[in-house]
């Protein structure tokens, strides 16, 4: 018998009186009816009035993490009233209509779709090429029902390949089945010209996309034609200025033009319900609710932005400013864009802070200056590496983007994390977001900070080898992990020096994580270094019980738990120094089904490969410096890849496979040191 919600708008007159006064008033019957019909009806009505979500699926022209390049999907939210609709960009570089499906990326979107949501899809750039070798991502050209069985020459996987149009139809039908509204877009044109005209897709992928949309009865936006018309009007020279590095990928300016073209198509699409959520044209591009936008340098005020002069220090009443010690000068840029009229530059690292509520934020930083080159490394909070070595030439302005998590000790009411004295006042526990600009000559023009409530959060629990170490020269893999992820994923590092699993429970660190996680998030746990110091005879059993109980609680909240075995100490290349803890974590992973990253084994392989250079990765026998922590973070990322965790969709495109026994050039990794130094050794060993 199918389960059916009662429509409260169709309840017959007098039904409630009969329910209360008649036989229905028997407690058991009344409770049954309330639970079966009334309560589900209430929640059903609530779900239907919730804020809908717009999902974007596609390739790197929609979402791009390569430096200097940007997809239109990274801009489009500025055209929507995000008080009324959420915008989630699930596009991923290098994917075709075929591989977005076969890699499971669409399944993740489909699992989140609700009635009333929308899906914008744009594929085609990667649907050419070989079907069975290399990246093996091509679909059959056209919109027909034909299929072809191929065997991947690299992986030996056998796959039935369908046509480009058939894959689009699959997405359309699946979205419709969830009550969502799909809209098909033709692919944006490349910067390729022939005889003075930009090459269009009217006879291939653009045509097939239109055919698929028409066959399935959904809206179609000929984005290829809209954008091509604009390129044609600009001419080859001005169009080239919209691209970065090649003829396919746009820079920020090109992404803005393409996003505006998508909006133009939505407004022109007959009966388009999504268009009702667009901001009026005069409000498009304004800051999203809760956003902060800053322009740097001694310059004139610009509407919608906060100007921060080079000498403005952080003040609690103001809520923003440079941290003490900043030595900045203003450069005036000879550009037409008023946003880029000035930059601040320095010969030293400097910090900028903004008071913000706890949560995830996507930060867009525009680097560069008109009259000088710049070399930039960006860190956040307590030295979390976000962007490494971003270089601009004189007159070049480069946007960099990442998602960052900030938090306070408060849990709820008067409950809070029990901070150690050495934690009080550190940057990762205060009420502000702090950005560090480092490098040979950092130069920054603007910073935009937008709330990112839909971001996937990866929580970390552990000890001094995981935590955000606030002072040089100490470093941990948790504060390097951030460098490998692009926008849409944030690292929330709740590890702390000297902590065991037991002490993390008593200090309410675990409670803070349990109160913060949401369904779909991840928790990576690495304990052992300090747990093994517990002298109780049953300490390993207590550790096991606590670990299993925590896994159970997190799974109840639909959070993905990943167990990480502790990396070895410097003396542990040939012999185990961690007693039975790595084996016990492996056992718990096997018993609970939690994915396991065996950092213990990976670290031993890494240390052996470093050979006589191993001491260069350590600060003492247990704790690492920037090189060691970066290599270990690379091992953790490889473990995530091997476990095929869905969150790996947010890895930066340049992150490939890694063999710890062959670190290669990564063994020469360097990063500019942060200005905060303290030789005091972290807790734990």
Structure in words:
The strands form 7 sheets. Strands 10, 11, 13, 14, 16, 19 and 23 form a 7-stranded mixed β-sheet that branches. Helix 5 runs parallel beside helix 6 (205-216) and helix 14 packs across helix 15 (626-642). This protein starts with 14 loop residues before the first helix and ends in a 43-residue tail after the last helix. It is of the alpha/beta class and 685 residues long. Strand 4 (148-151) and strand 5 (158-161) form a beta hairpin. The model is unreliable at 1-49 (pLDDT under 50). The chain folds into 4 domains: 13-48, no CATH class; 53-277, SGNH hydrolase (Rossmann fold), CATH 3.40.50; 290-454, Jelly Rolls (Sandwich); 455-668, Rossmann fold, CATH 3.40.50. It is built from 15 helices and 28 strands.
Oligomeric composition of the shown chains: single chain
> Could you tell me the radius of gyration in angstroms?
27 Å
CATH superfamily heading of the largest domain:
SGNH hydrolase
The structure class reads alpha/beta
CATH architectural category of the largest domain: 3-Layer(aba) Sandwich
Helical content class: 25-40%
Strand percentage, roughly? 15-25%
**Low-pLDDT ranges:** 1-49
Number of domains: 4
Largest sheet: 7 strands, mixed
């Amino acid at each position: 018998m199918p389960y059916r919600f009662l429509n409260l708008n169709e309840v017959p007159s007098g039904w409630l009186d009969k329910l209360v006064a008649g036989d229905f008033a028997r407690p058991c019957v009344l409770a049954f009816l309330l639970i079966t019909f009334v309560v589900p009806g209430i929640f059903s009505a609530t779900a239907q009035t919730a804020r809908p979500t717009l999902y974007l699926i596609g390739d790197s022209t929609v979402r791009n993490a390569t430096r200097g390049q940007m997809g239109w999907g990274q801009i489009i939210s500025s055209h929507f009233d995000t008080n009324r609709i959420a915008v989630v960009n699930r596009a991923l570089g290098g994917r075709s209509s075929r591989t977005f499906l076969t890699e499971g990326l669409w399944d993740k979107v489909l699992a989140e779709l609700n009635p009333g949501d929308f899906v914008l899809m744009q594929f085609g750039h990667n649907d050419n090429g070989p079907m069975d070798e290399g990246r093996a991502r091509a679909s059959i050209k056209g919109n027909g029902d034909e299929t072809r069985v191929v065997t991947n020459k690299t992986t030996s996987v056998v796959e039935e390949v369908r046509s480009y149009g058939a894959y689009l139809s699959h997405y359309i039908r699946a979205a419709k089945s969830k009550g969502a509204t799909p809209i098909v877009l033709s692919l944006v044109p490349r910067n390729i010209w022939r005889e003075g005209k930009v090459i269009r897709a009217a006879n291939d992928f653009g045509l097939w996309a239109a055919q698929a949309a028409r066959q399935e009865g959904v809206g179609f936006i000929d984005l290829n034609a809209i954008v091509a018309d604009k390129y044609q009007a600009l001419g080859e020279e001005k169009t080239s200025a919209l691209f970065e590095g090649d003829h396919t990928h746009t820079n920020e300016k090109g992404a803005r033009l393409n996003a505006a073209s998508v909006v133009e198509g939505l407004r022109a699409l007959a009966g388009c319900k999504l268009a009702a959520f667009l901001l009026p044209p005069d409000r498009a591009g304004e800051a999203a609710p809760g956003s902060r936008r800053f322009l740097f340098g001694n310059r004139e005020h610009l509407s919608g932005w906060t100007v921060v002069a080079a000498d403005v220090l952080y003040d609690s009443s103001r809520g923003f400013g440079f941290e003490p010690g900043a030595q900045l000068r203003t450069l005036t840029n000879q550009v037409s864009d008023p946003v880029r009229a000035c930059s601040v530059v320095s010969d030293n690292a400097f910090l900028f802070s903004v008071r913000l509520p706890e949560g995830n934020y996507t930060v867009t930083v525009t680097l560069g200056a008109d009259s000088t080159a710049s070399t930039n490394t960006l860190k956040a909070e307590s030295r979390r590496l976000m962007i490494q070595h971003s270089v601009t030439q004189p007159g070049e302005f480069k946007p960099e983007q990442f998602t960052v998590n900030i938090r306070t000790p408060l849990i709820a009411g008067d409950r809070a994390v029990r901070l150690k004295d050495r934690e009080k006042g550190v940057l990762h526990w205060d009420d502000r977001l702090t950005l560090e600009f480092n490098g040979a000559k950092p130069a920054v023009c603007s910073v935009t900070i937008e709330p990112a409530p839909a971001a996937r959060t990866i929580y970390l629990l552990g000890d001094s080898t995981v935590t955000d170490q606030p002072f040089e020269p100490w470093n941990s893999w948790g504060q390097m992990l951030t460098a490998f992820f692009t926008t849409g994923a944030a690292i929330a590092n709740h590890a702390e020096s000297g902590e065991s699993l037991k002490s993390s429970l008593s200090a309410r660190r675990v409670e803070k994580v349990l109160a913060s996680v949401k369904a779909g998030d991840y928790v990576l746990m690495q304990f052992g270094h300090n747990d093994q110091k517990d002298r109780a005879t049953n300490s390993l059993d207590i550790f096991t019980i606590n670990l299993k109980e925590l896994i159970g609680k997190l799974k109840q909240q639909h959070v993905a738990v990943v167990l990480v075995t502790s990396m070895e100490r410097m003396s542990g290349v040939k012999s185990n120094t961690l007693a039975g803890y790595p084996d016990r974590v492996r056992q718990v992973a096997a018993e609970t089904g939690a994915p396991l990253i065996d950092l213990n084994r990976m670290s031993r392989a890494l240390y052996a490969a470093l050979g006589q250079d191993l001491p260069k990765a350590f600060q003492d026998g247990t704790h690492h410096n920037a090189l060691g922590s970066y290599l270990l973070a690379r091992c953790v990322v490889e473990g995530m890849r091997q476990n095929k965790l869905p969150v790996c969709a947010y890895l930066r495109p340049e992150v490939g496979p890694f063999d710890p026994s062959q670190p290669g050039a990564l063994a020469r990794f360097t990063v500019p040191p942060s200005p905060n130094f303290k030789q005091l050794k972290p807790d734990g060993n």
